[in-house]
Amino acid sequence: MSIKYSVIIPVYNEEKVLDWCYQEVKKTAEKFDDVYELIFINDGSRDRSLDILKEIAQKDKTVKVISFSRNFGHQPAVSAGMKEASGQALIILDADLQDPPEVVHEMIRKWKEGYDIVYGKRSKRAGEKPLKKLTAFLYYRFLARITGLNIPKDTGDFRLISRKAADAIISMPEKNRYLR
Ligand code: UDP
Ligand code: MG
Residue 45: nearest ligand to its CA? Predict the structure, then answer.
């Protein structure tokens, strides 16, 4: 059966939250209307993250694990997940669940309307300190200014991308990628 949805989750030293993350993502994925896969990329964690992921993958055949020999960083981990993904819609989520997985259903609705990229946007930054809020606010404005691009403001890595968009990204070979 062909896979429709690929959920991509980069993981770096997340032993404390991984089981919880898996359960929450699984709950969300179970409500999808079609076949899905959950791809975890262990980005050279120094804690028990890889062991936990292996245990999860043994019990759940929808789970795939990629593991890096050392820490390469968030973006290479996401890139590896995208290459591995075989779904028609790719969903990128953080392991710490700072992005609520339920929102994915809404993203899928937008994808079905024909959008190739659906960003999750933070409506508020609850629990973050004023300095982080300010620097984040300035960062997105500065980024738009220096690149001259209309980059969606206050968005993170939380997004859905279509197979078409993913193939375009994968076809570009650069290593130091920055996706916003
Ligand atoms: N992450 C990763 N490699 C790294 C750092 C982070 O794969 O070198 C993962 C991390 O486990 C999480 C996501 O990338 O799932 C976002 O990381 P973090 O929560 O530290 O970023 P922030 O919330 O500050 O944007
Ligand atoms: Mg985080």
Answer: 1
